[in-house]
Amino acid sequence: MMREYRDPAMAIYLRPMTFEDTELIVSWRNQDAVRRNFIYQELFTREGHEHWIRTMVETGRVVQMIICEAEDGRPVGSVYLRDIDRQHNKAEYGIFIGGEGARGKGYGTMAAGLMIRYAFEEMGLHRLFLRVFADNTQAIRSYEKAGFEREACLREDVCIDGCYRDIVLMGILNR
Fold first, then answer.
1. Mean per-residue pLDDT, 65-81
2. Using CB atoms within 10 A of its CB, is residue 113 exposed (0-12), middle (13-18) or buried (19+)?
3. Average model confidence (pLDDT) across the chain
C-alpha cells in the first residue's frame, strides 16, 4: 500500500494520488506549459483520467503520487512510474509541475529524488528511465541533479505538430 513519502529536509513531500485529485490533474496536464513538454499532447478529460486510475493505477501498472508543499500541503504537481516491469525490475519515470507559482523552485528535482528512493527502496526496482525532448534543457538539468544520466539521443523520434523532434533517453540504476 502506498503511503506518504517524505524527507524532512525537503520543501515537498509525495502522497498517493486519489480520484479526488482528478480535477487538479486534468487542469494541470492541460496547461500549455505542461502539455508542450509531453510526447502525448492531447487534452486530458475527467473520464480519461478516471479510466487511467482504474486500469493503470489500481492494477499496479502505474504508481502515481501528488507533489505537495511541505509547509501547507498544497498540491503542486504529480510524479509517476509507468510501465512497471517486474521481470526486469524497471519503470519509466514521469513528472509535471502545474501548481501556480510552483515552477522554478526545485520541486521537480526534489520530487525526482523522493520518487527514485521510493522506486529503489520500497519497490525494489533496479532501473528507472525517462524520455525528454532534447531541447528541454531545464528538465534535463533537473533530472541530472536528481541522478539521472544521459544514455542516448533518438534523433527525430517523434512528430509533434508536423515537426520531428529529438528525444533524450536518461536512466538511473539502483546500485
1. 96
2. middle
3. 94
Under 8 Å between Cβ of 158 and 165 = yes
> In whole angstroms, what is the distance from residue 36 CA to residue 81 CA?
20
Fold (CATH) for 12-173: Aminopeptidase (3.40.630)
Beta strand 90-97 with 127-133 is parallel
CA neighbours closer than 13 Å in the CB half-sphere of residue 35: 14
DSSP secondary structure letter of residue 54: I
What is the distance between the alpha carbons of residues 111 and 11, in angstroms, rounded to a whole number?
10
Note the pLDDT of residue 26: 94
Domain residue ranges in the chain: 12-173
* Radius of gyration of the chain measured on its C-alpha atoms: 15
Give the DSSP H/E element, type plus range, for residue 48. helix 46-52
Give residue 2's pLDDT band: very low, low, confident or very high (50, 70, 90).
low
- Confidence check: pLDDT of 114 > 80: yes
100: cell is 501556480
Q: What is the DSSP letter of 103?
A: T
